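Human: We require from you a protein record containing the residue sequence and its fold in token form, and nothing else.

Assistant:
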Amino acid sequence: MKRLDLIFSERELDDVLSALEEAEVPGYTVMKHATGRGPERIVTEDMEFTGFGSNAHVIIFCEQEIIDKIRENIKTVLNYYGGVAYVSEATPL
């Protein structure tokens, strides 16, 4: 089983979720208002007042075949709007 973590601008949440639905993911968790610091900037909830908004963090647990389906659609969204995606191994308890 794999774990996919997606962190991106919350403004793009609908586009990302559409890409996940197209790939037929079995489910996902969405955490809005994710804040922190990346290599280019600090993301805070205060950025909502500027129109840039904060980030969203989406976690998906699925098989490699689903990751392969997600890959191209998500890369297109993240390359255009910015964000990161990481795949790791996941072992259920």
Remarks:
- The beta strands are 2-9, 29-34, 36-37, 42-43, 55-62, 84-89.
